[in-house]
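From the shared-data thread, chain only:
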Amino acid sequence: MKLWGGRFSEATDKIVDDFNSSIRFDQRLYYYDIKGSIAHARMLGNCSIIPKEEAELIIAELNAILKDIEDGKIEFEVDAEDIHMNIEKILIDRIGDVGKKLHTGRSRNDQVALDIRMFLKELVNIADKHKRTILPGYTHLQRAQPVTLSHHMLAYFEMFKRDIERLKDCYKRMDSMPLGSGALAGTTYPLDREMVRKELNFNALTLNSLDGVSDRDFVIELASCLSILMMHLSRFSEEIILWASLEFGFITLSDSYSTGSSIMPQKKNPDVAELVRGKTGRVYGSLMALLTVMKGLPLAYNKDMQEDKEAIFDCVDTVKMCLPVFTRMLETCSFNTDTMYKAAQKGFTNATDFADYLVKKGIPFRQAHEITGNLVRYCIERNIAIEDVPLEELRDLSGNAKDLIDEDIYNEISLEKCVEGRNLIGGTAPENSERHIKQAQQYLDSI
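Structure, as tokens:
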């Protein structure tokens, strides 16, 4: 007989039991379910809703069940549907009718909302390391201007910092305790919800029982935050994949974080980065599944909401799987700094600085832009770089600006000067990166 089966005259068909059961994926919530039940039982005894000695017996046995689960002595039953009913059934089997009093004043609906919140409060985030060397920065995947690798890495740091802030903000909205909401309307028992809130270390109580049992915004919001985080990892992965190719050659991945080909013996594939990029779509899919589940549900609880756990568990598991392996892949790769520097020397990444040089001498920017464009075309035709053009030729190619160009032009358009000159806040200058690195480290130390 089901714990809720008093109203029913027929047993549930096994196919319905299997379909209805969530124990295969929500059993991971056993710790949170038991901790929540202990707090609830202690409150029931403290409020004299059940005798204190019975409350203490329930608490003692719940702790014993927790130890047995962690020692691998308990197998959960599909027939008991979910983790909440499994724990309660084990409790009743062990201490008899006293165990049936645990569920006084609560519903599985608010238990589910409690457990998932407690589980999701334990997410860990990442920021990435940095180095200092010159490489080409890109727009439209075309070489644009020289930047430092430090600056490039810190761009991703800023992305991950926003991810951390989003998750912290998301945490605030999942940090409300729904126990006491009952099935949907609260309960007539004089529960001390505040006592349970404090014991379970929640910041606030849910203020509406209908919303308390039917809200899954916190799950959807977390899935959204994790989707954005995975998007950042995917962008980073794409660059790793490009940089590891022979065409770029900017990095060499460790053999321990690469794979080979079953047919082509020369291949060394960036499969870790590719899998992270691929798994991003999986997290997106979970977000869409959650939004779709919730889009047409009336108040209050509906069984559809059981679908939230597989989706959000998969989101969390995927992110937690990707972050450490991605970080380790990055830590073990080698940055080919000479190749990066040589790439920055090509593609006229210093052309903007040549135009800026003329502007600083009084030439209107649009005219300076045109002069520089003509110079670039001249260099392309001769397969040379701007800095390879002799001074007199530079002057001849600069029209009415010829008298403004001096020997210092070669220093002004050197890669080092190009990056050092961009020393405003947010720029790629090494001194600015050093300041940013210190701020980033302070931020990491504070979280």
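Residues 143 and 347 are 6 Å apart (CA to CA).
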